[in-house]
Amino acid sequence: MGSIWTEEAKFQSWLDVEIAACEAQAQLGMVPAEALAEIKKKSAFKQERILEIEAEVRHDVIAFLTNVNENVGDAGRYIHVGMTSSDVLDTGLALQLKASVALLRQELNKLADAIRQQARTHKNTVMIGRSHAIHGEPITFGFKLAGWLAETERNQERLERLEQVVAVGQISGAMGTYANTNPEVEAIACKRLGLSPDIASTQVIGRDRHAEYVQTLALVGTSLERFSTEIRNLQRSDVLEVEEEFAKGQKGSSAMPHKRNPIRSERISGLARVLRSYTVAALENVALWHERDISHSSVERMMLPDVSVTLHFILREMTKVIAGLQVYPANMNRNLNIYGGVVFSQRVLLALVEKGINREEAYRLVQGHAHRAWNVEGGNFRANLEADPAISNSLNASQLAECFSTELHQAQLDTIYKRLDI
């Protein structure tokens, strides 16, 4: 990803645009074949020379064209004819953005595969589901992963659409009116570059496209933060249901030898904040003065490489975390059954109602036993129920045992797994 955003790659994208425009003009009979051949053969640039010229002329595209023409010679008079700087800048940038999205899609596909594999493995690995960070009802770890996979697939769709949004070029000249160039030049050149012509550019391509790029990458990063935050919580010492892989020889603390920290997940959470921090700047870039200004340019030189490289990196990190995740079913079972299985309170409530007890009364009974188990050291919800005649008179031992089964909580997993083709 970093190689897409080097200065060398930027200048190469500019040269690709200029040559594509010359090829289009030659196809339309506006550039002699021998001149085009000379341009394609001799077109070259040196970054150091461009910077040397720019120091004098204070204009990056002029410096670039000057250096290219130094190499091409007389045929260089056909380069950049009827074009404006933004034709080169924005169309070249589109090539970089398109290439970036392609790499991001590859990494997101790898992440989806890693999540899918873990979901298959842990389809029936029972654990506690939590709301408000408080124990709710049983789920499976596979069910949790299925939710991550569904979100990842939505992000795959977003990036697929984004590739079309950013793959847009322009060769429409000053103000975008085609006054000194033919729209056919734009159409032919963009096709050669694998881009679509902008429907109605001004002197620049509208920055709503670039804002969508940044917002989409930030959204994908935020999904990764959601996954990583969950892993961090599940790795807490008092929970320890899953854990990042801890490599042989790895150390967690300079002072505390026992430490095994979720460092990759924390890294992902932190860098997702960096991605989101750019969304305001990207949105503010949309409102340029009249047909163009360059207030967006300085922002984009920092923002677009940063968000691209950052998301690419944390996608790789997330895939490594998921693929190497250590899962502890015994700890999941321990946490599920804490306080004698208070998390099965709804099943007991419904069983009592089915036996004819008023729902309000049943709720009062079950809640009372649950809270006593919760508030007393070594409290046991199931034992409390078994000792209460008001419960045992309605539910026999077998019926009560059924309430503490997780079968119902797993019964519909196939429905979700089929939707996701897991």
Order of strands side by side in the largest beta sheet? 1-2
State the CATH architecture of the largest domain: Up-down Bundle
Major sheet attributes: 2 strands, antiparallel
First-residue to last-residue Cα separation: 30 Å
CATH topology of the largest domain, what is it called? Fumarase C, Chain A, domain 2
**SSE topology string:** HHHHHEEHEHEHEHHEHHHHHHHHH
Radius of gyration: 31 Å
Give the strand content. under 5%
CATH class of the largest domain: Mainly Alpha
On the 0 to 100 scale, the average pLDDT is 94
Please indicate the count of domains. 3
Q: Low-confidence parts lasting 5 or more residues at pLDDT below 50?
A: none
Secondary structure tally: strands: 6
The name of the CATH superfamily of the largest domain reads Fumarase/aspartase (Central domain)
Q: So what's the overall shape?
A: elongated
Q: Which structural class matches the secondary elements?
A: mainly alpha
Helix percent reads 55-70%
Give the count of helical stretches: 19
Structural notes for this entry:
This protein is mainly α and 422 residues long. It folds into three domains: 2-81, Fumarase/aspartase (N-terminal domain) (Fumarase C, Chain B, domain 1, Orthogonal Bundle), CATH 1.10.275.10; 86-171 and 198-333, Fumarase C, Chain A, domain 2 (Up-down Bundle), CATH 1.20.200; 337-420, Orthogonal Bundle (Ribonucleotide Reductase Protein R1, domain 1), CATH 1.10.40.30. Helix content is 65%, strand content 5%. The chain has helices at 7-27, 33-42, 47-57, 60-72, 85-121, 141-166, 183-193, 208-234, 263-284, 295-323, 329-336, 338-341, 345-354, 359-375, 381-386, 389-392, 397-403, 407-410, 413-420; strands at 126-131, 134-140, 168-169, 196-197, 242-243, 326-327. The chain has a two-stranded antiparallel sheet with strand order 1-2. Strands 3-4 form a two-stranded parallel sheet. It has a two-stranded antiparallel ribbon with strand order 5-6. Strand 1 (126-131) and strand 2 form a beta hairpin. Helix 1 (7-27) crosses helix 5 (85-121), helix 5 packs parallel to helix 10 and helix 13 packs antiparallel against helix 14 (359-375). The longest helix is centred in the N-terminal third of the chain and has 37 residues, at 85-121. The radius of gyration is 31 Å and the shape is elongated. It starts with 6 loop residues before the first helix and ends with a helix.
